From TrEMBL, chains A, B, C, D, E, F:
Domain Cupin type-1: 20-170
Protein name: Germin-like protein
Positions bound to Mn(2+): H68, H70, E75, H116
Domain of life of the native organism: Eukaryota
Length: 177, 177, 177, 177, 177, 177
């Protein structure tokens, strides 16, 4: 993960810079109705130190890419097919939702490490392609991080965050294995 | 926000580099039992371009700094008084909670933009001092971002993130003004 | 061009983060048989400081995106439709061509500021979407830079670069207005 | 020192992010009446690539943290107890001393790699906590660097810097072992 | 190539920071009438992570440093002896040549990764010293990259870039071994 | 000081990238026998954001560039004429002097913000050309910063740093106006 020079220049070959596998839709036959297919330094060794990665996002109708952050990247999304509602939330003290409905051919930017989501609000499958300014951006779905980490975050902490009783927090946590 | 040179060097004075107001405990008489007092470029103009800020964290017994992220910073925390339980969650696919109970004089690091929390698990007030590697780190409490943004994130999106019914999501959202 | 904060957070709106216009193919009815449609900070003000941009590349059959560099970015390309031959050249002393033929769904990385090209080697139109790790990457077609700048680079310099006579250089330069 | 990924994510544990030992005052029973206790990547492996570190500064009455630089960091200091006089010197051509007397709860910033000092001007012990924007900031006390390096800087160089005779320089150097 | 710390501080010695061999003119007895002598991290291990390198440029009368880029650096050139014509080309849509004739003692900057050249337009040998803001800037002569890579860029691509027939492209390519 | 784009690309001209005035030796007829002539963003507006600057160093026989730091840069020096003794001091806990005598044509690197000096140990004038990896590196002569700032650093602080009596510190300070 540290430097293009870890492979001697004379032995570099085209396959170090190539990735196959975005040609078919991601499988959205799951609860979220959503699938992300990544192209990061884990898929292309030659991306190391280049500071960029991409992701293909497939959505069934009604499918949701739940609120999440990329701790090391900003994201620029282009809708390729269908209609996506997108949004991100600003930091304190505003906590504003900046949201938009995008048709195919429209783009939207999610600033560095802010909580954001996408949802297919059309009647057909939707596809997005996004760029991120890190070869290793990382992803953290924030609700799953709070409710479903392993081990669990103590219920008292979760309850305070929810402004709810411990029993509510416990019940919500129990849905995450 | 762009460059130390926005003020001519000859007119720079000590007050541009000084902040007063961390001498008394933050007021923790609130629901969370917690108060953060910031020292960022908003408080000290001379911090501009210097890439560092600090925060004083005061906790009543049982007080919680709810799970949150700093989109533009890593954080290093020192417990000054009392006992804090701290933790952060790693990115996909792990989503592990890395957690520790810290006594006064102990330190812990929360990596760049990962969801983390602190809780006073002692019987006395607790105080922490933290360093962040940005003069403008930003803070986003992730549960409040998902449930309490303005306008609200659509209930269907929140429900999918919670793996719960829309009615649960609506009820949870209603607690945030 | 200097900082997200140039617009006060409270007046930020969704349109600052949105771009329309990638929904139809770029017009490839030109000599190169190629058209690039950019999504940079010039198109989306909210991209400022976010370090990322994208571009849609349309190719007629046989169309060529001539050898060029992006002085401030690496590039990651996904072929959306058709078949593209792509390649980049390494630095001295190697000057190797790293090349590949990509089908739809395949990706390739062009390292920071190295000369690279793409060509549609299929019988149908081809479309690519690329990510760059700068909100303002810049583009310089290197042959046009050497032969067609305004004013022209002196013919003696061009001839030496071509390892050819001045008359050859003059003739080549004359094709660029 | 190169990258968070040097340890596989699945084997990361809380101790990699924890440091113990700031709970008792540094021993100031020395000539300077001062002790620095560091929390850098040398103490917390998990700080690697996170770009932040901290230091606890203990001062006996009259104790001095002699003029020094951190070659790779800016510093933000909070006085926790007592009264500290602090100052830094600007670059050429100004060479101004920007100085302030700070009480407990007050903060001050020392810009990137500029010569700065702190002194306890109160009658009690003083304690400061400082943040630095590097996991490995380094420290160089500038007078000791000029007079007490090993081997010594030639006396003629030191004399010119002091605008003094060689004999003065020699005598000053002799105090540093 | 990753970090100053790869050598333990206690074993660092002066030779790690020293380079010999700029004392005599580079041999300009070649077709270009030009020779570059580099001082990068390849010559001085201690340059690693320091972000700077230098190069000595020797020109016979009429000698040319053909149009080239440094993918990872900006360049600042000082003419030490003789008279150099220098120039760089801006990015699209301008593609302007910014050019100047420099006498000994004059300096010029070539921005990050833009195509640039130098030529000795005096009657004597000329010498330049340049600084680059990377310890490993890389060099790519753009005409040789397009016409002389190994393997060759397909002639159809080169012809389109030249706005010329394939036969012209083939002939130009044939001059590069 | 913030961004190449502050001048519209279409109005950029060659003079924005040019500096005249290194053609004659700096005047070394002073106490130090030394003169630095800078080429930074203050001299060349087009250096802005390019991250590089240069300096010409002229030394009379015996002339000294007193120990100093550049807070925002590493430095790479080439000796053009004469013989220079150079050295830098490492950080705590080593405080080693890394030193070398350089002849014309030899180069040496001074790492980021470490105290360093140069001295002409030959019988003729000496000339050096140095590169720095910032367009605005800044310079701080550390002895003058400690003894000669305006206002003065308190004598007690200086005395502790010198490990000497206050009277010694006072006397040394008095030589700096």
């Amino acid at each position: 993960m540290n430097g293009f020079a870890c492979k001697p220049p004379e032995s570099v070959k085209a396959d170090d810079f190539t990735f196959r596998g975005l040609n078919k839709p991601g499988d959205t036959n799951n609860t979220a109705g959503f699938k992300a297919t990544l192209v990061t330094v884990n898929q292309i060794p030659g991306l190391n130190t280049q500071g960029v990665s991409m992701v293909r996002l497939d959505f069934a109708p009604g499918g949701v890419n739940a609120p999440h952050i990329h701790p090391r990247a900003s994201e620029l999304l282009i809708v390729m097919e269908g209609t996506l509602e997108v949004g991100f939330v600003t930091t304190l003290p505003e906590t504003k939702l900046i949201t938009k409905v995008l048709q195919a051919g429209e783009a939207f930017v999610f600033p560095q490490a802010l909580t954001h989501y996408q949802r297919n609000v059309g009647k057909e499958a939707a596809v997005g392609i996004a760029a991120l300014d890190s070869q290793n951006p990382g992803t953290q779905p924030v609700v799953a991080a709070v409710l479903g980490s392993c081990p669990k975050i103590p219920v008292e902490v979760v309850a305070k965050a929810l402004q709810a009783d411990d029993s509510v927090a416990t019940q919500l946590q129990s849905k995450f294995k």
